Batch of 3 targets.
Target 1
Amino acid sequence: MEIFILGFFALGYLILAGADIGVGMLLPYLGRTAAERRTVIAAIAPFFLGNEVWLVAAAGVLAGLFPLLEGELLSGNYLAVVALLVGWIIRDMGLWLRGRMPGARWQTFWDGAVVGGSWTLALAWGVIFTQILPVPIVAAVMVALLFAMHGLAFAGLRLTGELRKRAVLLTGGSGEGRTYALTAAALTALGVLAGADLDLAASAADPTTLSLLVPVTLALIPFLVAAQAWVWWTFRARVTGPSYL
């Protein structure tokens, strides 16, 4: 059961947060002007904080239920994990600060932070996956491009007009829903392959710890899923203008 819990949170993060990471990576392509970039960011604005909760939950499950594996992953991928955290912080700083002051230079700088942080996040995940599987380090670029394609498909589902046309141009015309499903499946397969290559059973916590933490975690999952579903339902309409970011 503990393996299911870890997989649930990890795969949920890859699918949900992978979309807003991909949108951030391709922000200059999707939004050619400051106004367009504001609208593109509005496509992910209601979701990105909630999506990050899945990573926090996955990290908590890893630390509590798989403490040995946590140590191995952190020590074996120290630089990639640091890069991931730095990219995460820079990306979020860009999203929060870009609209806090007027001026083209200010917004351009923080838009650059969104793009740079998003690429750093995607490439850091790519490096981590190449270390786990293991595959050549060049495959990290392919993982990053998968995040980008996932983001394009999500942008196609969220945007309208010319912005949507740009998003679907590289993802199969009007089939953004199909493309999103395919990229989500690819991210899921990537996560499953990485999980299968880890000795999860041998690195699990002792039975006493599992008997305490597993029921608590299972009880919290419905609340997380319900909150996520509520956010998606509330902001289900396509974006037509800028948001608070």
Target 2
Amino acid sequence: MTEYSNEFKVKAIKMVLKGDSISHVSKILNMPNTASLRRWIFHYENGGISQLLHKNRKYTPIFKQKVIEYKWLHHLSLNQTAAKFSIPNTGTISTWEKLYSSYGFSGLVSKKRGRPSMKKSKSKNKVNKPKKELSYVEQLEQENYQLRMENDLLKKWHALMKQWEKEGRH
């Protein structure tokens, strides 16, 4: 896929706004098809130059869910949804939909990619201190705390699943 400069996009849109047809402009500018130009025009019509050139590449999982549910609720196309939420690529929304349908909200959470950073160890300058031995009672208290946290988490997850079943989500 060809990456077009912002100046190129603005030039193409101005040509269409002056009265040239989309197919004619795409031929003059040696574009392989009209899809990109149509998408640019749609973004321009819905938010002007700032929306056309908007390049936010990081979205929160809550924002992704909001976009998908808005699209489904209002029966919008990918282009309409992308224009409404200033998302430059419709494929992004399509990917979110597939992940959301398959994995639910957890599918929208970004996973770390790439090689992990090499953090400097703080223990190089310090003498390793032996860890304090916990008494039996302290060990039991720690285990009890951990089990309570897990139990609370499972209760919240179960309530969320019941709510989703009630709303008809999978």
Target 3
Amino acid sequence: MDTVITHLTLSFIVSFLLGSIPWGVIVSKLAFHKDIRDEGSGNIGTTNAFRAMGKVGGALVFVLDFGKGLLSGWLAAFVFAPAIAAVPVDAATSDGQLLLGVFGGPALNPVGLALALAFAGCTLGHIFSPWLKFKGGKGIAVAAACLWFVFGPVGFFIEIAAFALGIAVTRCVSVGSIAAAAICPLLALYFYWGQWVPWLIIAATACVVIWAHRANIARLRAGTENKIGGKKCA
């Protein structure tokens, strides 16, 4: 049991630390000699990076943020999850039911929990970066990247399709982001059916991503959100 819990804890902590790296701030200061937080919306994510630093700076921030999400998911899938799977659950303690009780019941797969915790860790680390006094970005790029491993390629591309559709219909990046976050609990329900704790972790994290877009939601309701091309959303 201790080995499994250790790897679950590491899956979250390592992913949180990876997610917390504020690449938007680092790139803006080192390469452009400015602070992205003083530009545009003040957000450290990809959208504001394009506004503040142009195509090159924005693309670099996107790649780095996407990369930390990919690395978080990869570590969970190919390092922590295999380590957990190598532990015979029923023999991990003298009482196999005790271990199952710790994980919430026999329907909960510890490997699925490791992936869910990695998704939560990198996303929350990005939104609540301890290096920025627990402020950060909105979590879309890093979360989407991690979902390649959490949901697999099919789930990942469904998320990208929702993101693209939201933008295509409204020309607002925030609508695409919110749409992708909104369908995340539904996809998790499919991919993690019966694994209620991993599902709850993924769903709760998606809700935090939507909460991080609260200012965008307010502007959308007021009809003042920026559109691609510089116009306002109707």
